[in-house]
Amino acid sequence: MLSGSASTGPTEDDWAAAVAAVRRLPADARVLLICHVNPDGDALGSMLGFGLGLRRSGVRRLQATFPGPPEVPEPFRWLPGLDLLVPAVEAYPDPDLVVCFDAASESRLGELVDRLDTAGEALVLDHHASNTGFGRIHLVDPRAAATSVVAEELLARLDVPLDADTATCLYVALTTDTGSFRFEATTPAVHQLAARLLATGIRPGDISRRVFDTRPFGAVRLFGEVLGRARLDRAAAAGRGLVWTYATLDDLARHEQQPYVLESLIDSVRCTAEADVACVLKQVGVDEWAVSMRSKGAVDVSRVAIALGGGGHRFAAGFTGRGGAQEVLGRIRAELDGALTGS
Question: What is the pLDDT of residue 310?
Answer without folding.
Answer: 87
